[in-house]
Amino acid sequence: MSVLKMQRMTVCALKRDRKAILEKLQSLGVMEISGIPETEEGFDKMDTAQQRAGFEKAAALADQAIEILERYAPEKKSMFASLEGKLLVGTEKGRRVQEEKSELLKTVKKICSLDREYAERKSEIAKIENSIESLRPWLALGVPLRNTETKRTVMIPGTMPGGTAADDVYGVLSEQCPGTEGVDVEIISSEQSTVYLAVICMKEDAAAVEEALRSAGFARPSQTWERTPEAQKAYLEQQIAENRSRMADVEEMIRSFAARREEIKILADYYRVRADKYAVLGEIPQSERTFVLSGYVPACEAGQVESYLTEKYDCQVETEDLKEDEEAPVILKNNPFSASMESVVESYGLPSKGEIDPTSVMSFFYVFFFGMMLSDAAYGLIVAVVCGILVWKYPRMSPGMKKSLKLFLYCGISTVVWGILFGGYFGNIVDIVSEKFFGVTVTPPALWFVPLNEPMKLLLFSLLFGLIHLFTGLGIKGYLCIKDGKIMDFFCDVVLWFMLLVGLILLFLPSSLFASIAQMEILFPDWVNTLAAVLAAAGAVGIVLMSGRDKKNPALRLALGAYDLYNVTGWLSDVLSYSRLLALGLATGVIASVINQMASMLPNNVIGVILFIIIFIVGHAMNLAINLLGAYVHTNRLQFVEFFGKFYDGGGRPFHPFKENTKYAEVKEETLL
Questions:
Q1: C-alpha–C-alpha distance, residues 595 and 137, integer Å
Q2: How far apart are the C-alpha atoms of 294 and 85, rounded to whole Å?
Q3: Same domain flag for 341 and 322
Q4: Residue 294 domain boundaries
Q5: Which of 83, 168, 328, 486 is a plausible cystine mate for 394, CB 3.0–4.6 Å?
Q6: 671 pLDDT band (50/70/90 cuts)?
Q7: How far is 56 from 54, CA to CA, in rounded Å?
Q8: How far apart are CA 450 and CA 458, in angstroms?
Q9: Does 564 have pLDDT greater than 90?
Q10: Angstrom distance (rounded) from CA 37 to CA 310
């Protein structure tokens, strides 16, 4: 278990080599550029905002083009496509894309332009369809709704509230403008809430007639047309047909660019990498002929990077250890088994300065507890085999996904071991199948014991394993105190607590309470009981006297010590938390047994066998999913709350190297390191 040692590397080189050095550092991906020296006289920072914005815009356009192609011409992918990792392309193809970037960018813009046209045509069709919908009530009208005047008459089209009849309109007109003559009212169509009509009157009476109609709720139509409604409808339908024809052509044109999807992906990554490079370029001080950059490099890589740069370029490279108060980024380095659990530590928090990497110790307990919670050999075998196949078949999956699958692979193996110890194979499926279909009950023996038959025994061992886990955490705290030369802290915060806890445990084991729980009696010699009492008392007194040792006020010291001693209840709570090992272990077996029992209640015929298989598959799949999630969540909790709480704070900053942060593809290049 270790945190890679970091060093600060400062590079001063000729400006003519700036591009090559930055590109090489970016391709190596082993340096986090930060803490760049302040600009001194003669050194200025280059304004790269415009170039960077241009590259980011080009990358965004390429991303948009890829999304458009995915909509119109979806790429055929397997259900495990997310595990395949980034596209791997050769150096020659990457170079060819860079050479053709201008042409490719035109293609990208063309795809985006066609998509915009498609969207505009689609929006236009929606507008036209709305216009047709507003036309429908007027289709029976044989004249246009615009320019409705003759030499002496005028037609006033409009709407009235639902239920209005022609006689009602005549009544309104006779009441509001009695002097008008020759008025004709035509009801065109009617709906529940609206009546569509046309009123024809003399030109000189038009204003008075319309005013009278408005008093009764009349309103002019929102749209009018120079054609008749029927002719306008035919015209609009023709426009829809033309738009749809063009949309089909546009769709086909976009699909024709699908063959260039891979090149567009490489192009997007090219501009993305360029944008990152120019972001760094804008931060480094530059003079007329030189530039300076500085950052963190793992100590194991620093020598090779320095040798490469000094041999290939005229530059000065200075590598130095970090200052005492300098907080470096963190990279974890563990063996292949423990490395798969690094994501668990990272989700809690990386080690801060002076802390150790707890991954190796935690990884053993993690796998141990996970398997104990799931505790079914068949379930564990399924998890291990599936994860193992996926890791083997998809070697280019992302590092995070590979670590997660390896984590579940090891947890699956642990589950197989615990399942064999507890005799759990899909619950009690062997018993059920042998009895139902063969008339003879066959029970696979448990190498240790069956939890469902001896739950209290499992509880005791769960608490025992919890104590070992907690004591290991306290022991690591003691190691850190000794490592930092804090001998007094080691004695007061570790040794005294060990004395108190061990003494209390030795006093508890011979008690009647323990005997009633464990169904067994433990007797110690008198000298052991005396030793236990002395240890507990000495530990308690020492904690009360020494916990507040940094305070000069005696009363305050004792108060703080008494409060710290009260934390023994927290230890009790932590130990009882490990009863979840019992709870989840029993839950897996009980639910599996219930599923098997339900399936066994079916008749022993062909239909019964088919239903038995269906219930078996569906039921155990659900049980595996639920308990797999439960084991993962509660195993994490035991590490985060109980174990890490004894010695680990976290809070370290992850290492963010200057590298080629591609989204779609990786160019296979020959690297130095």
A1: 63
A2: 32
A3: no
A4: 1-46+287-331
A5: 83
A6: very low
A7: 5
A8: 9
A9: no
A10: 20
> To which H or E segment does residue 667 belong?
strand 665-667
Residue 445 sits in the same domain as residue 365 = yes
Determine phi and psi for 521, rounding to 5 degrees.
-115, 130
Q: Which residue has the tokens 């806890």?
A: 501
Same domain, 479 and 411: yes
The tens digit of pLDDT for each residue in 401-426 reads 999 999 999 999 999 999 999 999 99
Per-position DSSP letters for 27-68, written without gaps between them: HHT--EE-SPPPP-TT-EE---HHHHHHHHHHHHHHHHHHHH
Say whether pLDDT at 479 is over 50. yes
The DSSP bridge partners found for residue 88 are 666
Last residue of a domain, which of 272, 301, 331? Answer: 331
DSSP 645: G
Please give the single-letter amino acid code of residue 334: N
491 shares a domain with 605: yes
Residues in the chain: 673
Centroid of chain to Cα 184: 71
Total count of domains within the chain: 3
What's the alpha-carbon Rg for the chain, to the nearest Å? 40
**Taking all residues of the chain, what is their mean pLDDT, rounded to a whole number?**
90
Are residue 467 and residue 603 in the same domain, yes or no? yes
Q: What is the pLDDT averaged over residues 31-51? A: 79
Instruction: Identify any residues that bridge with 190 across adjacent strands, giving them in sequence order.
Output: 195
- Local confidence band at 383 (pLDDT 50, 70, 90 cut-offs): very high
Residue 23's CATH number: 3.30.70.120
For residue 464, the tally of other CB atoms under 10 A from its CB is 12
| Interval 547-575 mean pLDDT | 85
- CATH number, position 211: 3.30.70.2750
> Which residues share a beta bridge with 293?
11
Instruction: Name the domain boundary from 267, 300, 331.
Output: 331
Please indicate, yes or no, whether residues 479 and 369 belong to a single structural domain of this protein.
yes
State the amino acid at position 397 in one-letter form: M
Residues 291 and 370 in one domain: no
* Euclidean distance between CA atoms 498 and 506, whole angstroms: 12
* Rounded Cα distance, 452 and 458, in Å: 9
% of residues, the chain, pLDDT over 90: 64
Distances from the Cα of 592 to the Cαs of 270, 346, 596, 664, in angstroms?
A: 53, 34, 6, 43
For residues 92, 97, 98, 104, the Cα torsion angle rounded to the nearest 10 degrees is 170
- At 184, the amino acid letter reads D
Q: Are residues 591 and 553 in the same domain?
A: yes
Residue 353 Ramachandran class (φ > 0 left, ψ -120 to 50 alpha, else beta): beta
Nearest 5°: phi and psi at 200?
-110, 130
Instruction: Give residue 392's pLDDT.
Output: 94
Count how many Cα atoms sit within 13 Å of the Cα of residue 283 in the half-sphere of its side chain.
Answer: 17
Instruction: Give dist(CA 9, CA 436) in Å, integer.
Output: 72
pLDDT tens string 227-286 = 899 999 999 999 999 999 999 999 999 999 999 999 999 999 999 999 999 999 888 888
Cα separation, 137 vs 305, whole angstroms: 80
pTM of the model: 0.85
Quick check: is 528 in a domain?
yes
Q: Read out DSSP for 432-458? A: HHHHHHHSS---PPPSS--TTT-HHHH
Which residues, in sequence order, are CB contacts of 29 under 8 Å at separation 6+? 657, 658, 659, 660
239 domain-assigned: no
Look at residue 397 and tell me if it is in a domain. yes
Helix residue ranges per DSSP H, 566-605: 568-577, 579-600
DSSP string, 378-415: HHHHHHHHHHHHHHHH-TTS-HHHHHHHHHHHHHHHHH
